[in-house]
Amino acid sequence: MPEQWRNFLDDLPRELPRPRDLGSPSAAEISAKVRPKALMEQDNPAERWVPIPQPVLEWYRRIGRPTPLYRARLLEKRLGTGARVYLKREDVLPTGSFKLNTAIAQAYYAAVEGRTTLVSETGAGQWGMSVALAASMFGLDAEIFMVKCSLDQKPYRRHYMELLGAQVRPSPSDFTAFGRGVLDRRPDHPGSLGTAISDAIEYTLGKDSAAYISGSGVPHVYLHQTLLGLEVQAQLEGLYGEAVGEAGRGDHLVACSGGGSNLCGLIGPYLSARAGGADLRFLAAESTAAPRLTAGRYTYGRADLAGYTPQVLGYSMGADFVPPPVHTAGLRNHHSSAVVSLLRNEGVLDAVAIEERKALEAGRLLLQTEGILVAPESTHALAAAIDVVAEADAQGLEPVVVVLASGSGHLDLQSYSEVLRRP
């Protein structure tokens, strides 16, 4: 298991565009108040390698890191492909999600700084579950704003958080002025990550000793998630004695993309190799319900709707865009992160939008062949990888295809059932 996180910001094809921060108070001032100082410093670390604190390492080992790299041989057989398809199995972690990797780190830094409460948003609920568990590891309270339509679709994730003592509220929320304003204008608003981030930050500003933490979208989260790519590197080199991309097979790394943390965690450690000529392709799978990378505009925008976060240059559907209440809540973002958008705009990252039914059909196929049930978000990556395999077969290629199984689908059975039973 890695004992250091990999800072890949210097491996980006060019420097990140500066954010715009015109509010009063500014987003930088708000961040300084609500976020632990160590996390803000990790947004632009000086070191190439950032040591993982010993208490965080101990918890990583306890939860089961490193996670398995699993070859899906029966899926390969069903597809009739010569490609080698691997799943990076983050679904086996205690909360059923890769989100725990950064939740543990952020909870640790909040506790060291003397914060007593973690506050955050959650879409599908996997991040909220991870925040609740990480808070309990370090003796902290947790308060979570969950996207309303997801709270209705996935009640068992709420139950999990509450079992750990977390307070869970729907977003838009009547606990905040922002949320009340949204509900006054549209009482049936389904919520989005933009509303939930706004609710969480406003709530943190009014609560002493609370820390706001993010599940995605900011560099320190991507830093923590480089565990994913670092473990894959070690595991594949152990199998083949060579890194993916070195054998001229046209190898692929595939992950879904909402806020971009599982995608950046997987591909970040590989950016320098690709820049050096490795035959390696990166693919982001997003939802057709919020197709920022494939149909959005490259422009400045915010992750939240209330104006607490800075404007960053990214692919956007616009601040007024309200994603439909699909079951892939983790992909219902209106604006993409600066890092993911830069990689896309510079041609380093490819992207594809996957329709929900097609994605969940791929998930059903994986269950039928390998006995593995992944989250709806992860099925988008799986469906995209199946298309990659079909294209490779048509070209007579036999690449290694690594798919990030970012989450478990065992609390998403209602989603599978509702979508796949539609005529």
From TrEMBL:
Record's protein name: tryptophan synthase
Family indicated by similarity: Belongs to the TrpB family.
Upper taxonomic lineage: Bacteria, Bacillati, Actinomycetota, Actinomycetes, Kitasatosporales
Assembly and oligomerization: Tetramer of two alpha and two beta chains.
Cofactor(s) recorded in Swiss-Prot or TrEMBL: pyridoxal 5'-phosphate
NCBIfam families: PRK12391.1
Keywords: Amino-acid biosynthesis, Aromatic amino acid biosynthesis, Lyase, Pyridoxal phosphate, Tryptophan biosynthesis
GO CC annotation terms, alphabetical: cytoplasm
Pathway: Amino-acid biosynthesis; L-tryptophan biosynthesis; L-tryptophan from chorismate: step 5/5
Keyword Ligase among UniProt keywords: no
Enzyme superclass (EC): lyase
UniProt xrefs under Pfam families: PALP (PF00291)
